Amino acid sequence: MSGASLIAELELHLSTTNNRRGRPFQRKTINAYVNSAKSLDRWLSEHASEHVTALPGTSAHTAGVAELSFLGVDVHVLNRHLRWWYETYDVPKSQDGKGGYTGGTNTQSRNLRAMFNYLAEEYDHPNPFKDPRLHNWAAPELGKPRTLSREFISDCLKITAWGPSRRDFETVRDHALLRVLTEGLRAEEILSLRTFDLDLQSATLVVVPLKGNRNSTDGRPIPLQPSTIKALQRYLRVRALHKRAADDWLWLGTRNRSRLLYAGLHRMTKRRAEQAGYDAEHVAPHSFCHSWCDDLLSSGVSGENVMAIRGWRSASMLRRYAQDTASQRAINAVHNLGDRY
User: Fold this and answer.
1) Per the domain annotation, does 35 fall within a domain?
2) Given this model, what pLDDT does residue 182 score?
3) Which residues belong to any copy of the Tyr recombinase domain (predicted)?
4) Torsion of CA 262, 265, 271, 275, to 10 degrees
5) How far out from the chain centre does Cα 248 lie?
6) Which whole-number Å values give the CA distances from 302 to 15, 165, 282, 305, in the listed order?
């Protein structure tokens, strides 16, 4: 059976089953698994002979034919593929250019597990991930996040703030987007908002968790700052004049285009940072999440409340988002005590 046919089967399987938490697979997750399977399929076609001839007990011809199919992949072939992936993609990313970074190979290995779990279940194919001879590839250590300064955020908001020359659709929308980014939402959560998710009278909006496409009853309310409410009110006014105003999606594109996508949000944050006079290299929508966490903790909001608003179940996420400025918060907290003796 061809690789394309098996990949199509895998995609249908993932689209009609639940993950280990009992929820449907997110579309992004399905795409990641399918794309990794496609990359393995290409490798099998392009590098079969050079990677299989050394397999013990196999001729070059039979080995090459076997490896052209997923059903011919055993632990030796998979190890060779992952080694090739590491040398091709990860070594160039290492700081010294000689290796050390294995994050891409770790991701490729984890994503391919879905394909071989499916083959084991449907075709009784020996699962190489159950073989102790499969090589492990370490996940990269997570570096400290870059928390944006209050000055940076304030400057970006100033250049889009409401004014006589800043009442066009794009500027008003971008200001509202920047304001909502300061509320601690992930980019996908912001872009998935519908107009009916806003409850400005209660100073909240409702975010439906994206992991597993949960039902709306699982949504969590996000408290909004007064300035965010004002920015959203103004955006809704100019949005009403948009050609696609009848769409449910809250954020619409410029030039009467429909739903705003991540690429547009990413470009907006970079563009507004540059217009405010900053280097936009390390600025991304997700950077605002770290700043939001630091702002709340520095203002005395408890970690428990931060976790509840953000929808985190593990305290490790709080530590991850708060670690960048943890030392400074600790110093400020002690200084605020004044003389103790």
Assistant:
1) yes
2) 95
3) 143-335
4) -160
5) 23
6) 39, 40, 28, 5
Q: What angle do CA 334, 340, 341 make, to 5 degrees?
A: 150
- Tokens 């290299």 correspond to 281
* Residue 314 CB partners (closer than 8 Å, separation 6+): none
What was the pLDDT predicted at 145? 55
What was the pLDDT predicted at 338? 80
Written as one letter, the residue type at 175 is: H
Q: Which residues contact 261 (CB under 8 A, 6 or more apart)?
A: 191, 253
Which strands sit side by side in the sheet containing 204-207, from one edge to the other? 198-199, 204-207, 220-223
- pLDDT at position 189 is 92
Count Cα atoms within 13 angstroms, Cβ side, for 252.
22
Q: What is the DSSP string of 246-264?
A: TSSBSSB-STT--B--HHH
- Cα–Cα distance, 312 to 4 (Å, whole number): 38
Q: How far apart are CA 288 and CA 284, in angstroms?
A: 8
Domains in the chain, number: 2
Q: Tens digit of pLDDT for each residue in 189-206?
A: 999 999 999 999 999 999
CATH code of residue 180: 1.10.443.10
Helix (H, G, I), strand (E, B) or coil at 137: coil
What is the spatial distance between Cα 231 and Cα 78, in angstroms, rounded to a whole number? Answer: 53
Measure the CA–CA gap between 271 and 263, rounded to whole angstroms.
Answer: 12
Residue type, 154: S
Q: Is there a single domain that holds both residue 124 and residue 204? A: no
User: Residue 243's domain spans which residues?
Assistant: 150-287
pLDDT at 111 (0 to 100): 96
Residue 339 pLDDT: 80
pLDDT score recorded for residue 151? 92
Q: Which residue shows structure tokens 């390390």?
A: 282
Which residue, among 128, 32, 10, has the nearest Cα to 77 in the 3D structure? 128
In this prediction the pTM is 0.64
- In the chain, which stretches have pLDDT less than 70? 48-68, 93-100, 140-146, 209-218, 324-325
Q: Are 152 and 278 in contact (CB under 8 A)?
A: yes
Do 193 and 265 form a contact (C-beta atoms < 8 A)? no
